[in-house]
Write a structure and sequence with these properties.
The complex is a heterodimer of chains A (about 525) and B (about 240). By secondary structure, chain A is of the alpha/beta class. Chain A folds into four domains: about 90 residues, Glutaredoxin (3-Layer(aba) Sandwich); about 200 residues, NADH-ubiquinone oxidoreductase 51kDa subunit (Rossmann fold, 3-Layer(aba) Sandwich); about 80 residues, Ubiquitin-like (UB roll); about 90 residues, de novo design (two linked rop proteins) (Up-down Bundle). Chain A contains 23 helices and 13 strands. In chain A, the strands form three sheets. Chain A has a five-stranded mixed beta sheet with strand order 10-9-13-11-12. A four-stranded mixed beta sheet of chain A has the order 2-1-3-4, with helices on one face. In chain A, β6, α12 and β7 form a beta-alpha-beta unit. In chain A, α7 packs parallel to α11 and α10 runs parallel beside α12. The N and C termini of chain A lie far apart (about 80 Å). Chain B has about 240 residues and is of the alpha+beta class. Chain B has two domains: about 70 residues, Ubiquitin-like (UB roll); about 150 residues, Alpha-Beta Plaits. In chain B, about 25% of the residues lie in helices and about 15% in strands. Chain B contains six helices and ten strands, in the order ββαβββααββαββαβα. In chain B, the strands form three sheets. A five-stranded mixed beta sheet of chain B has the order 2-1-5-3-4, covered by helices on one side. A three-stranded antiparallel beta sheet of chain B has the order 6-7-10, with no helix packed on it. A two-stranded antiparallel sheet of chain B has the order 8-9. The longest helix of chain B has 17 residues. Chain B is globular, with a radius of gyration of 19 Å. Chain B starts with a strand and ends with a helix. The chains are: A alpha/beta (about 525), B alpha+beta (about 240). Chains A and B meet through α18, α19 and α20 of A and β4 and α2 of B.
């Protein structure tokens, strides 16, 4: 494979593509609401009229507005339909021919779409995730070619550093610095790991990327491997994502067949092989040292850091471990340059971030927005507020490690530092919107139940602390708590934050602490509920 | 490599490079509580009792897994650390069914000693009182999960010294249990050599010899280190 062959594939692909196309979202959300039945109906209708060659019915990745699926788009007009039913197939074909049609249309001028800035999701909804030719036709694997033939590993790392990209898994560690550390750490072999063990309740950004554009992640990993000097990569993806696993497997096989992964990529001396490891359902395996233990075939438990994986990771070798979304940003930085990338976002948080907007919100789905946008713009303008129009009470970011931000702070810009300053975290991108019907003690209790079930049991503060906190919150919820219990809850939260072994236990108290900080009266009301027993 | 000089609780202490902070702290004559650490076994940093404050580091670090470095300034016994250690012991006592008054290991138990050491005179947390089994299917030994603290010293002794890995951990969170082989009765284990190293390593009365009261036998965890040393000298 060389650049000419790559271009030839792209040209061939574009030349044979029919002008008329009906594209349906084939990601998990739309499949669950019946996208495949719609596809069958469209195909059989077209076959009846002998138009199956003239009109292409194609699968594409996630179109974003998951709450209104199944979603279908027609080309060349670009009209997008929502809540499509199999019976709408005839109408959609009519619309393709320019006739009027009664199927509900997505308003493409809604802020939900217009306020987005697509970098990671730029191909989502345009390409078929099962076909490498589609990815090559939109410019895929050009960045990898450019990197291998025209840049040194140090130049690649320098570009990533200058772009200001930070880890999208939640903690926001500078990506360039991590790559440089791995590149400089001595070791016989080095590894690149993509962390696709997305597990926060209400978060599905990484799943959508893998289901919609798997080659984007593979290309990003290959560029990283070239930069740090690794020849073996692993994608650790959770077993609950069968479609993502299937598409990744296909993508890896296609890339290998085309000489874009494997030995002597682009006829250079660079080799890079990628294998998939499927998680067995433990949330803690998203923690990097537990994830590494799991790949090694051991019990998925974290170990104290240092040493960090960059120094001593998989089988004791220097290991680069980044999140799906981080790798998905790489090709855009190489393609358009670090200066372009760092011009987006705030001073310390560059680029865009994908959020999964869920909960009491009108427009449920995935949005990719530039860093620095305010919560108000996301929740009220893009999300459209609550479905019944009642005021939004709070938004929970960062899952079980994050916190609840009250509506009074919705002018907070979304960047790593600002969210931390208000007691939450950026996290991996889950954003759960709550209205007045949500009791904040229930929210805290829900997340504590999650942490108690997902604690690995290795260290005492997390193993027993989560259960004790959960029991105390349950007592509180049932009106059986004493006023002194609040300080006991706070004391235990401090113990867990300061002494737990890994991020799971250290951040497990965050949902409790943030709701106690902003909604303390809801806790106090529950103590008053059964009469004040204590002094 | 040159020896390192560090400050522990205000005293200047020298240490060998590559030595753990715990070793340096002990050599300086300072006692800090430990539970999952056992001389002769690898460290896991799980019990969090040996956490210390290191100046310039945001997070507390486990002394057993932190390497000494030149100029390190360490505090091992601040009021904050004392409070955390006591809380951790309280959590342990509340987790399973540790009732010293009726326990055969009373007077011969590291957990009991630790409670005295950190000044834990009562437990402020609700007892979880789990329903834990006792396995006496093995001819010579038994395990009472009510007294297990999940320190995994038996797991490591079996794996690292005896080399058979009969023991492991199954389950998550408070439901985690040490198990033999494929989570089957100990007596049916096909890998167990009945060497008794797990018994030596156990800090409480969880693993016990059958036919002998725990009070009759001396607490002998230090023998694990002797075995390791003896092997080193011979080779």
């Amino acid at each position: 494979m060389d650049l000419h062959e790559l271009e030839a594939i792209a040209e061939r692909e574009l030349a044979q593509r029919p002008r008329l196309r009906i594209l349906y979202c084939s990601a998990t959300g739309c499949q669950a609401s019946g996208a495949l039945e719609i596809k069958r109906r469209l195909e059989s209708l077209l076959a009846e009229t002998g138009r199956q060659v003239e009109v292409d019915v194609g699968a594409v990745g996630c179109l974003g507005l998951c709450g209104r699926g199944p979603i279908v788009r027609i080309e060349p007009s670009g009209e997008t339909f929502e809540h499509v039913k199999p019976d709408d197939a005839a109408e959609i074909i009519a619309a393709l021919d320019g006739h009027s049609c009664d199927v509900a249309r997505c308003d493409q001028n809604h802020p939900f779409f217009t306020r987005q800035m697509l970098i990671v999701r730029r191909h989502c909804g345009l390409i078929n995730p099962d076909r490498i030719e589609d990815y090559i036709a939109v410019g895929g694997y050009r960045s990898l070619y450019h990197v291998i033939h025209e840049m040194t590993p140090a130049e690649v790392i320098n570009a990533i550093t200058r772009s200001g990209l930070r880890g999208r898994g939640g903690a926001g560690y500078p990506t360039g610095l991590k790559w440089a550390t791995v590149a400089k750490s001595p070791g016989e072999r080095k590894f690149v790991i993509c962390n696709a063990d997305e597990g926060d309740p209400g978060a599905f950004m990484d799943r959508s990327i893998l289901e919609s554009d798997p080659h984007l992640v593979l290309e990003g990993m290959a560029i990283a491997a070239y930069a740090v000097g690794a020849e073996q990569g692993f994608i650790y993806v959770r077993g609950e994502y069968p479609l993502a696993i299937e598409r990744l497997q296909k993508a890896i096989a296609q890339a290998r067949r085309h000489g874009l992964l494997g030995a002597q990529i682009f006829e250079s001396g660079f080799n890079f092989r990628v294998d998939i490891r499927v998680g067995a359902g433990a949330f803690v395996c998203g923690e990097e040292t537990a994830l590494i233990a799991s790949i090694e075939g051991r019990r998925g438990q974290p170990r104290p850091r240092p040493p960090y994986p960059a120094e001593s990771g998989l089988w004791g070798m220097p290991t680069l471990i980044n999140n799906v979304e981080t790798f998905a940003n790489v090709t855009a930085i190489i393609e358009k340059g670090p200066e372009w990338y760092s011009s987006i976002g705030t001073e310390k948080s560059k680029g865009t971030k994908i959020f999964a907007l869920t909960g009491k919100i009108r427009n449920t789905g995935l949005i990719e927005v530039p860093m620095g946008i305010t919560l108000r713009e996301i929740v009220e303008e893009m999300g459209g507020g609550t479905p019944d129009g009642s005021p939004v009470k709070a938004v929970q970011t960062g899952g079980p490690s994050g916190g609840c931000i009250p509506a009074s702070l919705f002018d907070t810009p979304v960047d790593y530092e600002s969210l931390a300053a208000v007691g939450s975290i950026m996290g991996s991108g889950g954003m759960v919107v709550m209205d007045a019907h949500t009791n904040m003690v229930d929210v805290a209790r829900f997340y504590m139940e999650f942490c108690k079930d997902e604690s690995c049991g290795k260290c005492i503060p997390c193993r027993v602390g989560t259960v004790q906190l959960f029991n105390m919150l349950t007592k509180l919820r049932n009106g059986q708590a004493k006023p002194s219990d609040l300080s006991k809850i706070e004391e235990l939260c401090e113990l867990m934050r300061e002494t737990s072994l890994c991020g799971l236990g250290q951040s497990a108290p965050n949902p409790v602490l943030s709701t106690l900080h902003y909604f303390r009266h809801e806790y106090e009301q529950l103590i008053g509920a059964e009469g004040n027993h204590g002094s | 490599m040159a020896a390192k000089t560090l400050t522990i609780d205000g005293h200047l202490v020298s240490a060998r490079p590559g030595e753990t902070l715990l070793a340096a702290i002990r050599e300086a004559g300072i006692t800090i509580p430990t539970l999952c650490h056992l001389d002769g076994l690898s460290d896991v940093g799980a019990c969090r009792l040996c956490l210390v404050e290191i100046e310039g580091q945001r997070r507390l670090q486990p002394a057993c897994m932190t390497m000494v470095s030149e100029g390190m300034v360490v505090h091992t016994n601040t009021p904050r650390l004392q409070a955390y250690r006591r809380q951790i012991i309280e959590l342990l006592f509340a987790e399973r069914n540790h009732v010293c008054a009726v326990c055969v290991a009373s007077g011969n138990c590291e957990l009991q000693r630790l409670a005295g050491m950190v000044g834990m005179d009562h437990v402020r947390y609700e007892y979880l009182s789990p329903d834990c089994p006792v396995d006496i299917s093995h001819a010579r030994f038994g395990i009472d999960h009510n007294r297990c603290v999940l320190c995994t010293r038996c797991v490591r002794a079996c794996d690292e010294i005896e080399g058979v890995h009969t023991w492991d951990v199954a389950g998550r969170g408070v439901d985690a249990r040490v198990i033999t082989d494929m989570n089957q009765p100990w007596g049916t284990s096909t890998t167990c050599t009945s060497c008794g190293k797990c018994l030596l390593a156990c800090p409480t009365g969880a693993i016990f010899p059958r036919g002998v009261t725990v009070g009759e036998r001396p607490h002998a965890s230090e023998r694990i280190a002797l075995i390791v040393d003896a092997r080193k000298q011979r080779w």
